[in-house]
Amino acid sequence: MKILVTGAAGQVGTDLLPLLVEQGHEVTVFDIARRPAGCPEPVTWVQGDITGRPEVFDAVKASRPDLIYHLAAILSARGEDMPHVAYRVNLDGTMNVLEAARLFETGQVFFASTIAAFGPGLPDLVPNEISMRPTTMYGVTKVAGELLGEYYARKFGLDFRGVRFPGLLNAGIPGGGTSDYALFMYVEGLRTGSYAAFCEPHAMIPFMYMPDALRAILELAEAPREKLTRHVYNIASISATAEEFADAVRARVPGVDLTFEPVPELQAILDSWPRALDDTAAREDWGWQPEYDLEAMSDDLIAKVKALLVEDAPAPTP
Ligand code: AKB
Fold this sequence. Notes:
Elements: E1 2-6, H1 11-22, E2 26-31, E3 44-47, H2 53-63, E4 67-70, H3 76-81, H4 83-103, E5 108-114, E6 125-126, H5 137-156, E7 159-165, E8 167-169, H6 180-192, E9 194-197, E10 204-209, H7 210-222, E11 232-234, E12 238-241, H8 242-252, E13 257-260, H9 264-272, E14 276-277, H10 280-286, H11 294-312
Parallel strand pairs: 1-2, 1-4, 2-3, 4-5, 5-7, 6-14, 7-11, 8-10, 9-13
Antiparallel strand pairs: 10-12
Bound molecules: 2-amino-3-ketobutyric acid.
2-amino-3-ketobutyric acid binds near residues 75 and 138.
């Protein structure tokens, strides 16, 4: 397939690209960032701004993708620092992608939605369909993105699909998310031996290990359309408190010093998000099944972060 990935230099895209290349797809990237050193060779990298309609149209026109993975976004914490930029990147960017897909007849658009599309006051286990009244600019733009995609599906027959990602953990460095405290416990814990999390120990939101998230993306894209009863799905795997994450790291990294220095604005964002998602619809419609719980993820992630730290270590002087 011909695939275009927007925002491919981000946390999800960085791990998705090698998988797509390995599967033999012809991959084009559209990202504001320059091509990074480790980008797989066959990928065509177009540096551009998702808010610039002509640039997006040109990239889609030139690459004529069968499928667009639309990952470009400003995440929650950064979005609160610059709400106008978040609005433009997340909402105008999504509109540009949908319109390009319509004009140049892209078969399918995958949309990265999020737990942040939900707002406060919901049940502990949040179902796929429920009132969505987020309180962050990131959440507002993601709900609007879901609705725009559904509009394009209804009005123009676009095959629009998406998942609501929990906080994601992988060995890379995330950028601007409020869920990042969990990953920093692993990365900073291993790198420097200590980390002070910006949340309360009892903070609890849904999380997922990146290999599960990537499988969800690929499996949903491949699912037969007639099996899908909606466009956007909750997916879930790990729901643990920040203290439980800290304990999982402490059990594996002797002597690590993990503490909590809550930042009220960030804790308020976490408090506005679901504690856990009900992913029954994804399980029933396309067989979604996570593989990693907190323990399995911690074992695997710690090994991966350690390997990266060895790779990045300065070469010993002769
Ligand atoms: C964030 O923290 O903003 C993201 C998300 C939960 O979508 N990781």
